[in-house]
Amino acid sequence: MSPITLIARKESAELLKSGRGLAWLLALSVILSVLSLLLVSNTELSLLDNAQVVYMVMGTITALGALLAVVLGSDAIAGEKERGSLVPLLLAPLSTTDIVFGKMGGQVVAWIVTYLLSLPYLWAVGSSGQNLAEAIVYLAVFGTPVVLGFGFYALGLSARFGSVRAALITALITLMLLASPLLLGPGLRQSVIGKAFDAVNPFSAAVNSFDSVVIDSQPLSMQLGRLSVTLVWLILTLWFARRSVQAVEI
Amino acid sequence: MKKTALWLGACLLLIGANATWAAVPMEITLVADNANPQSPQMGDHMKFISTIKNSGNAPAQGVVAWISLVQVDSGNEQPVDLEDWSAHKAVTQASLAPGGQITVEWPMRLIQAGDYRVVISAVERSTQHIITSPFIDFHIKRKPVVESQRILPVAFGVPLMLGVLILWRIRKRWRA
After folding, report:
1. Interface ipTM
2. Which residues, numbered 99 to 158 in chain B, qualify as contacts with chain A under a Cβ-Cβ cut-off of 8 Å?
3. First and final C-alpha spacing in chain B
């Protein structure tokens, strides 16, 4: 078994096999349930077009996935250090790539589980509307690089700071900033600064694609620019994570 | 005194009449697009097409035209905020030559069920009054957007299932 698989299995086992570890999954499902119930019970929201409801749920799932990735990434290196298990990890015959991708294995599993958990909710709110199949595909295509990018970014911060708290706070602030398009309507993003922010923000790229595909039924060809923004984010954060782990000293 | 008042009145009348003479006569037509659904329902898209024509002899300057939507359901009459309905709410034209016309398409997404009346209005810089198109009335059928029959089992079922799974795991570990 390769070192990456070994570390990834250990990381994902901590998340999924213990009863306590599964609590995050329960919390996630409660959030999605409350959101869905709000959509049913709130008169104003229930007047929205079905596609808009699906769009809202997709944005929320991406944000929740990114939040989970930030928490796990912040703990990845600094947590090992604080628990005293970083030295054995660094002394093991593992390359930087092994450590980074192994640690990310847990996050990949967490994102896959989050995605699978969201499917019944997407079906529940969106099956009588338009573009549900597209919503499911685009959530995977755009959500994955955004979420894993946040994981790499938090992992990099974790290695740089050596403190879970510092890495978590910094990563959360970044997440709040980049995920602000979920709260700010398109009207508030029409200024020059808003447009520039939208053009480089991977979260905006994902959310705007969800809007474009699910609500406006626009084709993939119109999403390629946005997809490239999310992929550039993934590559940059991967590079940052590798450089940061390389710089860790015993 | 009486004579002065008469003169003043006459002058005011002339000024008012002059303003009316200076106004550029414009006409607006409004038709529904042929591709519109016959029986529209929530979530559908509709398009209206209007033509704004300068039927006067002088150019019309600073023409602004906008779309208005009014809900006319009995007991629920109200103007509609087009925020979610349309991103294309107004057009401007710096100058419209005599006899010239502009055709404007007004797309919208139907958000809420009910009876509606759409109208295009326009103003021109020298005109003292608003110019409006004829009305078009249409009805939007209700469509269930979020159905509680589907959501409730998922919203309660998934957390319950996970809760049971967690309890089972914890109990299994205690037994071991």
Report:
1. 0.82
2. 109, 111-112, 143-148, 150-156, 158
3. 113
